[in-house]
Amino acid sequence: MATIGVLTGDVVGSQRIKDKSRLGSTLDRVLELLENRFDALSDRYRGDGFQVVLPDPANSMTAAVLLRAALIEQSPSRQAMWDARIAVGVGTGEVPDPQHFAQADGQAFILSGRRLDELSDTTDRLAIVTSSPELDVTLTLVTRFADDILSHWSRFSAEVVSLSLLHDESQQALARRLGRAQPTINRRLAAARWPLIRDYLAYTASKLKQAKR
Q1: How does strand 49-54 pair with strand 41-45?
Q2: Matching SUPFAM superfamilies, A to Z (predicted)?
Q3: Full-prediction pTM beyond 0.70?
Q4: Fewer C-beta neighbours within 10 Å, C or N terminus of the chain?
Q5: Which of 125, 186, 189, 180 is nearest to 161 (CA)?
Q6: Among candidates 113, 66, 84, 115, which has minimal Cα distance to 17?
Q7: Where are the domains of the chain?
Q8: DSSP assignment of 39-100
Q9: What is the pLDDT of residues 39-93, one digit of tens each?
């Protein structure tokens, strides 16, 4: 059986969000983006819940960061920030038939679902669990640091990191894309701690590729 990545998550404080239609549209757009970019399969449930299955687990954390960035970027205001809890499970399993997503089963699904339940009792919003306890020791710690950075992003930080992940471009090119000055892009990337997040994603992808072998 293949090794896959499963993201299980829900929107933080969704019951307090007034514009449910805009929230739903944002979720739909980012899930479609992940499907197209990573050949993934996604599903939404209970309105604010979602699940994403990635055939290549090395893409799991990048997908999780893109999903959180999309929500933060679309937040209505600085006082009403959107975000999500996401538990990434990496283990054996198969990408399910889209018509039977709800019946999907396997180690990666179980690991991801259980970890999300545990996240609900903490202030953490991003976690990863694999079939290797030894690998989990390392990835859990570095993910807690990354999670703390993401949880303090502004809408502008989330926007520029999202574009940096989607487009391998220089700061000058990103500035043109956003209609901003290059120093502004530089400040926003620095505020987002982009070099650390970029290195974190490269590190976790490398470790998860090794786990897949």
Answers
A1: antiparallel
A2: Nucleotide cyclase
A3: yes
A4: C
A5: 189
A6: 84
A7: 3-207
A8: T-EEEEETTTEEEEEESSGGGHHHHHHHHHHHHHHT-SBTTB---EEEEEEEEE--PPPGGG
A9: 999 999 877 899 999 999 999 999 999 999 999 999 988 888 999 999 999 999 8
Asked whether 153 and 81 are in contact (CB, 8 A), the reply is no
Cβ proximity of 197 and 146 under 8 Å: yes
Quick check: 86 and 150 in contact, CB under 8 A? no
Phi and psi at 10, nearest 5°, equal -150, 160
Tokens linked to 180:
């901003």
Q: Do 96 and 103 form a contact (C-beta atoms < 8 A)?
A: yes
Instruction: Quickly count: other Cβ atoms within 10 Å of residue 168's Cβ.
Output: 7
Burial environment of residue 14 by CB neighbours within 10 A (0 to 12, 13 to 18, 19 or more): middle
